[in-house]
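thread: overnight batch results

M.L. [08:02]
morning all. the overnight job finished for the chain we discussed friday. pasting input first so we're all looking at the same thing
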Amino acid sequence: MISYKYRAIFGDAVRWAASIVLDCGAYTHWRQGGRVCKDYYEGYTSWVEYCADYPSVAWYVIPDDIAGTEVENDELIALWPKHLRLGVPIWHLHEPIDRLKRLCDEWPMIALGSSGDYRTPGVGEWWTRIEETFQAIPKKTRVHGLRMLNPKIVTRCPFFSADSSTAARNSTTTGRSGIYDSCTNATRTQAYCEHLEASVYPVEFVAPKPDGRPFNALD
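M.L. [08:03]
and the structure it wrote out:
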């Protein structure tokens, strides 16, 4: 997955990656205090139009405003150009389940974003909410988990795909990689990627086994 915020690496990705997903960068933009305004939306759309003809581009996220309302995000979806047919809308976990069901009726694939009281994937009440989420999603709908590639998450959630910035963030930092600390950044990146991608997604949601304490995927 390539973020619009770091779109300069697209050329390298085309040369090396078998499959590419384009992300609008709304999460990073929001963390930096920004909103998805008209200029940002149009800039991202133009970039997608440039990239979309490359055969390795599998799909692309439709822009959303993390700080926006349900109505505002529906308006952003309605603005999406019809000819960019591989667009995927985002549903945020704090939003009403009815909106999730409507998106599943209208789109063959959706992306899930952690937000509000469920902003941290795999922690506390996030598990209750993600179980409610999958109960509402029909089996025909493909689901992508944004920031949800943690093996403790993907082995319990029936995703079509998921992403994470874990490899990119940790591969350049020593002290986090155990036996790989003395290796090159490239070797650490490969080790992280192989670890993250080794998990098998289940066909249906698998609830964490209760043991008297909250299940925390970050433990």
